[in-house]
Amino acid sequence: MSAFDDIRPYYDTEVNDAIREILSHPMLKAIMNFTFPEEKDEYWKTLMLHCHSIRDFQINFIYPAIQKVLEKSSSGLTTSGFEKLEKNTSYLFISNHRDIILDTSLLNASLYEHGLRMTTSAIGDNLVKKPFLKTLARLTRSFIIKRGLPSRELLESSKTISAFIRQSLLRENRSVWIAQREGRTKDGNDMTHKGVLKMIGMAADPGENILDYFKRINVVPVSISYEYDPTDVLKMPELLAKARSEAYVKGDNEDFNTLLNGIIGQKRGIHIHIGDVLTDKIDHISQTVPGIVRQIQELTDLIDRQIILGYKLWPTKYIAHDLLHGTNQFADKYTSEEKELFERRFRKGVDQNDPVAVKSFLAMYANPVVNQMKIRE
Asked: What is the pLDDT of residue 1?
């Protein structure tokens, strides 16, 4: 039995059997009817029965589904920085994380359009509790990270995940996507958790400096930015609990509802930026910064800086900043129509008589502006 069997995506030899298991599932029917609205079910079912690889499944079914999502719920996807990537080279994409499914799906669609290999992507097991969703995740080359484990089990799980990432990057030449921290950023502050880097670094050779290992795996920060967060209102209960120093407990179907709203909710503009390949900068850190603790901190700061500066500031971010601070500092960054549209959404989704709610919602949009200003000072 492979050490990765309980976390890995399907092998291509397993794809057709997995498809046959879910072919009659009502959720797959809903996805395919959305993707191919003019076609009868027999059309996509026949195509799927002839599908024998993850790549075929992604290109023939997931890619058109993502194009339909963009058509129905956005004003389009733009990209920058993909020219930095080389074909037939694997990268560790460390990304900010705003949407459960779309972040990786949109990156993979963009990689495909640029003639680059698609990634294997980390996903929390809390999002694939339903058997159908777990099968779909494995069919789209996701690997599963187990959440909420006791300390000893967490250590073993981290070793397994880091080994899987290493195998993907260095043996299979397959790029890997992982979020910069556990869970999605809900307050607009995209900050890398050092624990994620330490976990990845567990796969270094015995006696190898962790930064030397990071130099080998082509670390690339990725920034994804949505003009409107389709789950902004859904994030409010957790943000309010945090603001009031209260414990927050997720509802039974909260993750699934967030997943669904993220896909179908209105996003308007979306932008993905590929940062620099950090190999040379990591080498500089290893040569000039003493001590592993400081080196990891410097690497964390480097990734944060790249993600924050690569984040596209849509008009909504500047509008929220001005509303939060009661100024017109960025009035030249948006139109009156854009401001009216944002304020309408803001008033509809947030109790205007609750100052904590008002501040939390606006800060969610405004914090990327604040963070870029801090770096540029």
From this structure: 46
What 66-73 contacts at long range (C-beta under 8 Å, 24+ apart), as own/partner pairs, is: 66/102, 66/105, 66/106, 66/109, 67/109, 68/34, 68/35, 69/102, 69/263, 69/264, 70/270, 72/264, 73/230, 73/263, 73/264, 73/265, 73/266, 73/267
**Region 263-272 average pLDDT:** 91
* pLDDT: which is higher, 147 or 309: 309
- Mean pLDDT (whole number) for 87-113: 95
Of residues 172, 204, 192, the one with CA closest to residue 275: 192
- Judged by DSSP in three states, 268 sits in strand
The DSSP bridge partners found for residue 176 are: 92, 120
Angle at which helices 355-376 and 292-310 pack, to 10 degrees?
Answer: 110
Total residue count of the chain as it appears in this document: 377
Statement: the pTM of the whole predicted model exceeds 0.85: yes
Query: What is the arithmetic mean of pLDDT over 142-164?
Result: 94
Q: Would you say domain 74-312 falls under CATH 3.40.1130?
A: yes
CA distance 213 to 194: 16
Q: In whole angstroms, what is the distance from residue 321 CA to residue 310 CA? A: 19
* CA atoms of 178 and 196, how far apart (whole Å): 9
pLDDT exceeds cutoff 90 at 272: yes
Per-residue confidence (pLDDT) for residue 264, from 0 to 100: 80
Mean pLDDT, residues 148-164: 94
Q: Which of 258, 259, 265 is nearest to 234 (CA)?
A: 258
Query: How many Å is the maximal CA-CA distance in the chain?
Result: 63
Element (DSSP H or E) covering residue 352: none
- How many H helices and E strands in the chain? 17, 7
Q: Which residues contact 189 (CB under 8 A, 6 or more apart)?
A: 367, 371
User: Terminal CA-to-CA distance of the chain, rounded, Å?
Assistant: 54
User: Which regions of the chain carry the CATH code 3.40.1130?
Assistant: 74-312
